[in-house]
TrEMBL record:
Classification via InterPro entries: MFS_dom, MFS_trans_sf
Keyword terms: Membrane, Transmembrane, Transmembrane helix
TM stretches of this protein: 36-60, 72-90, 111-130, 136-157, 169-192, 198-216, 252-274, 286-306, 318-342, 409-427
PANTHER family for this protein: MAJOR FACILITATOR SUPERFAMILY (MFS) PROFILE DOMAIN-CONTAINING PROTEIN, PTHR23528
Name of the protein in its database record: MFS transporter
CDD domains in the record: MFS
PROSITE patterns cross-referenced by the UniProt entry: MFS
Source organism: Amnibacterium setariae
Keyword hit for Transmembrane: yes
Compartment(s): Cell membrane
Amino acid sequence: MDESNPLPVPVASGPTVIPPVAAGPASASRPGRSRYAAFAIPIAILGWSIALIPPLVVVIALRLREIDPGTAAGNLSLVLGVGALFSLVANPLAGRFSDRTTSRIGMRKPWVFSGAAIGYVGIVVIAFAPSAPVVLLGWAIAQVGMNFALAALIALLPDQIAPERRGRTASFISLAQNLGGVLATFFVQLFPAGLVQYLVPSLIGLVLMIAAVAPIRDRVLAERRTEPFGLKALLGSFVFNPRKNPDLGWAWLTRFFMTTAQFTATSYLTYFLISVFHVSDAQAPTLVFEAILANAVGILLITPVLGWLSDRLRRRKLFVIISSVVAAVGLLVIALATSIPAVLVGELILGAGAGAFFAVELALIADVLPSDETAAKDLGVANLAQSLPQSLLPVAAPGVIAAFGYPGLFIGGAVAGVVGALSVTRVKKVR
């Protein structure tokens, strides 16, 4: 964002209308780009993160321990794995349908608003769940709703932000996403244990997300697209052709491996602290908050600078490589930590690397999209690279932890981060 000019208050104007498009290459006009969108998209992502992080990091783990402490770890893997499978389906489908939505309020907003409602229903189910299967059901519903919203929110980046400004905006999106984790865990430990702790933090996040998105001048299709949309097109929502779009393929792999690295240090953080450092269930939310806060400090120190520098130098890959290696170092520090302060140092380093990575890498993916007219669909497929590790890791993690302990899990994540750095070197279109 251009700090020399304050962000204007959004004007009360109608949405930008895209003329109807026929089958084949689209000639739809661009929506008007505003500085408000550059401000609002990160704020909306902040709200999205505040809503999602409490169940992902704390609430589900504690709820499962309340139901049955003896089976909590195994049930956590099952719940997170199945929930991630639902996100695998929901995100690209929402992206594909968003590209074809003819709502009067726009292509993206209906999916943000409906996703928020569905997601919160799932969180309520988790809060009242009497058994692990019901927790699983609630998390599946929450994942569907939240990924409906995420697909539309991410599509707003190429819709609303010019290429030469995407690095800066993407850096603030990454900053907001990770700052959301800090605020979410702060709210969780701020409220008393029980239903208020389970329900209020996520509600705060969803309200913030909706409030930020509502004034945006969304793209609007005047008529439905005329190309057929059958089973083949539906299944095409989950794939792209890496031979025709090799840069998107390599960027996809980069995101996959780096998400694997990051997820190892978030999904099992609560149990890592309980198992290795013998903290109590009552202490765990506060310590998780401190760890996420340390992570966010690293993000705050690095992310805005790298996003701006990436735009200024018009280079993406170099910063992706550097940030991937830094994140791997952070995971190694956590793996070898013998005290909670050492864990916090590792989280600080990991935050500096992961936050910078996702800032620049999101701009890189936006730069290599094949077409503006399928932006949400292609970004949805790219988002599979974030959802798939969340499905696969819970399957593999229990075996890795049993064989090598939590250090083995974190070292494996560090290796994945390095592989991600190598993958991005194959991208040709972007420097």
